[in-house]
Amino acid sequence: MSGADIREFSRPMTGPALVPLIDAIEAGEKPVVAAIEGMALGGGLELALGCHYRIAHSKAQLGLPEVTLGLIPAAGGTQRLPRLIGFPAALDMIITGRRVSAGDALKLGIVDQVTERNAGEVAVAFARSVVDCPLVSRRLSTWPPLCPADLDNILQMALARAWQRGRGALAPVACVQAVQAARLPYSQGMQQEQKLMSMLFASPQARALQYCFFSQRAVGKWSMPNGACWDNSTARPIRKAAVIGLGTMGRGIAVCLVLAGIPVIAMETDEKQLEAARRVVMALLEKEVQKLAVGLHLGLIHFTLEQRYLREVDLVIEAVFEDLALKKQLFAELSSVCHPDTLLCTNTSQLDVDQLATATSRPDLVVGMHFFAPANKIKLLEVVFTSRSSPEAVATAMQLGKWLGKVSVAVANCPGFVGNRMLRPYVEQAGFLLEEGATPEQVDSALEHFGLAMGVFRMSDLSGLDVGWRVRKAAGLTGPGVPQGQLLQTQQGYRYSPLADLICQKGRLGQKTGCGWYLYEGPGGHMARPDPWVHAFLEEYRRVHGLQPRSIGQQEVLERCLFALINEGFRVLEDRIVMDPVALDVIYVLGYGWPAHTGGPMYYAGEVGLPRVLGRLEYYQRVHPDIPHLRPSALLRQLVAKGSPPIHKWMWHIEEGSSRL
Ligand SMILES: CCC[C@H](O)CC(=O)SCCNC(=O)CCNC(=O)[C@H](O)C(C)(C)COP(=O)([O-])OP(=O)([O-])OC[C@H]1O[C@@H](n2cnc3c(N)ncnc32)[C@H](O)[C@@H]1OP(=O)([O-])[O-]
């Protein structure tokens, strides 16, 4: 049972109230045994906690995921679970919303028995065996709370962890407060639980998180401009796959495939790189085997230097060095080496998938599968289709993503696809703010205070400043033939900040070199500290170029960076790169650390108010007429003119607009 019907949250709840129902079961004189066959989540687990005994099938999963919906368990879970398994374990489950396996639930004491047989049948037999046993000790709400001596410290640490998990998110903090009330008598604790739930239930954050829940499922119902979509396209079975290029991304992708039980040919051209990859991949798999406690055939993966093994695979994912010529050459080779029906996928994050398709004899079987680092952790997968990609190829890549535990989002091929395309104006504004007087830490703290997992400069240092540098060189924006560091340098007619290029030229590439926008404890360090060298560098740059620094507030940082990103999102919709704005929100929440409790960039724009977003962009565009990314998109203007319809109606206006053309 997956808990309360989330769809009911936006309308009056129907059916019997759960709390009195569970209390009545618990108080009853007949032993009630919960049989947990599949999922016991949220209200489902809370109902089971009100029963006197719990039997779970070995494949069952249990959890209280309410926090992921901006809520708290509100049918006694915050009061019964700490009594049953203690405060630390209960806090961990409730603050994270994570699911536990039946085996772990047995170890924790949540269930009384785990069975490989039909849980219902076992529960009936169990009920018969306890029919004469007294129930008084089985009523959790009557148990005294198990208050450890250091409970205050445990709660303080839980509060700090709750805050760290989602800066600005209300629900994790409320979870701690509700569990804290389990030190009181049950009825008083329940009053606190209900009070906190009432505060959260109608909150904008709860609505935003529930929007995220449904959005991540809606993107599975993908469609393409040519009318192909999820329910008229058939995915092919993937009996064996290959990963070519075993750098960081290739290794993560190979791990994903093996964990999904798909045999993998892991291929490199360099012996040393192959051996290094073998060691890393096998270590990652060993770790997953221990963590997941599942049987895994490590023999599923075969490391090789030889292309001949590629003949037997159904799908190839290349993750070689991000160089177009190299990838085109590889795709041309794959055309002749692989079986004619083999899908050829690229993990490129920036390069033109259409050009790769052209390099093959099967452009219809070429799609992008853009994983996000670390590939075996980040749930997002951008499936990039070209105008020639067949619906079957897209359906297969989307399906494979799901098998790998990813949320696959189908996007049309364009520079940067969706995530990186929207990121460009965001990063660009951050650079301009440095020129105008801000420091990297001022910009980052404003963005992180908003809730982003990492500010733009910390994120750049993590991924490596040379990544963006290579892209700008390829775009002809910088490099040996391009004049460097001139006043508000214009490139291709628009304002361009050379700051990142100048930093890279100094060999400051971020964490990997021990310095970038920040200073680290050494190459590979992670502790970002403000760097006096960067401050002096910025002051000198402004002096040389006659730039009068000014104090820049958090509001301007957020508006310039986030609204520029949102504006590009509207352009992505105008260009029909995706067919639904929820796709942009899913991409940013899952792939770029956008705070889920605000719904995602496009949902957030609706919450802020489209007229305000438009007005602020118009203001900044007047102040900075040489920055086209600040020019409000036509769709944003159109939506405001139409009275700012809700997000699920935006695409209708695009259809309406394009049908008028
Ligand atoms: C009084 C308060 C009591 C309590 O404390 C509050 C709660 O219980 S709060 C609730 C706490 N419970 C949770 O937070 C559990 C939320 N659910 C999940 O975590 C996963 O769905 C689950 C793990 C159950 C299955 O994963 P999977 O196998 O990958 O499958 P899937 O995920 O693709 O879902 C298939 C379809 O079912 C839909 N749907 C699913 N659950 C719900 C729901 N509760 N409601 C409505 N719909 C739901 C889902 O939208 C999708 O619809 P569609 O139209 O086909 O796209």
From TrEMBL:
**One Pfam match:** 3HCDH
Q: Which GO terms describe its biological process?
A: fatty acid beta-oxidation
Matching entries from InterPro entries are given as: 3-OHacyl-CoA_DH_CS (IPR006180), 3-OHacyl-CoA_DH_NAD-bd (IPR006176), 3HC_DH_C (IPR006108), 6-PGluconate_DH-like_C_sf (IPR008927), ClpP/crotonase-like_dom_sf (IPR029045), Enoyl-CoA_hyd/isom_CS (IPR018376), Enoyl-CoA_hydra/iso (IPR001753), NAD(P)-bd_dom_sf (IPR036291)
Its annotated pathway reads: Lipid metabolism; fatty acid beta-oxidation
What catalytic activity does the UniProt entry give for this protein? Answer: a (3Z)-enoyl-CoA = a 4-saturated (2E)-enoyl-CoA; (3S)-hydroxyhexadecanoyl-CoA = (2E)-hexadecenoyl-CoA + H2O; (3S)-hydroxyhexadecanedioyl-CoA + NAD(+) = 3-oxohexadecanedioyl-CoA + NADH + H(+); (3Z)-hexenoyl-CoA = (2E)-hexenoyl-CoA
What keywords sit in the KW lines?
Fatty acid metabolism, Isomerase, Lipid metabolism, Lyase, Multifunctional enzyme, NAD, Oxidoreductase, Peroxisome
Q: Carries keyword Plastid?
A: no
Q: Which residues form the 3-hydroxyacyl-CoA dehydrogenase C-terminal domain?
A: 416-520, 557-643
Q: Which GO terms describe its cellular component?
A: peroxisome
EC number annotated for this UniProt entry = 1.1.1.35, 4.2.1.17, 5.3.3.8
Outline the extent of the 3-hydroxyacyl-CoA dehydrogenase NAD binding domain: 240-413
The protein's predominant localisation is: other
Q: Name one GO molecular function term.
A: delta(3)-delta(2)-enoyl-CoA isomerase activity
Where is it located?
A: Peroxisome
**What does the sequence similarity comment in the record state about its family?**
Belongs to the enoyl-CoA hydratase/isomerase family. In the C-terminal section; belongs to the 3-hydroxyacyl-CoA dehydrogenase family.
Q: How does it assemble?
A: Monomer.
The protein here is known as Peroxisomal bifunctional enzyme
